[in-house]
Amino acid sequence: MGRRIAIFGNSGSGKSTLARRIGAVLDLPVTHLDQLYWRPGWVPAPPDEFRSAVAAAARTPSWVIDGNYSRTMDLRLPLADTVLFLDAPRRVSLYRVLARQVRERGQDTQAPGCISKVDAELLSWIWGWPERRTRLLDRIAEDAPSARQVLLRTPREVRALLADLH
């Protein structure tokens, strides 16, 4: 049986970067839920299409899937053997999102046809993270009780995890 690794965390916490790194080290396919959810111009996918796409990715024998999207956690968590939770402080997430905006200005970022942007909705999401954090951790504990669950708070902890994968 393959590896199935789910990655959760606030916007700007490093989910996509960690997913790519783990995918490269373990030679696993990587699915970024933002790429399944967003259509050009930041238009959300129809809910049934999105769930179908997530279900298809989760049914494969091995994967790294990053993204929160609570409406699809039931498709991923029961199948995950490892759940990584990036718990960066809000100020770090805000800094990373702003740095990404500068670095990727005018480029497609989260999905094809979605030009990099930082707006009030994204900033509000990041700032309101502590309220959602507890609910998400509870949901992970409930829906993935047999999965290895790892809370990563610092870049040092992320580097140690990656080193342990080699």
TrEMBL record:
InterPro entries: Cytidylate_Kinase-2 (IPR052922), P-loop_NTPase (IPR027417). Signal peptide: none annotated. This is DNA topology modulation protein. It comes from Amycolatopsis ultiminotia.
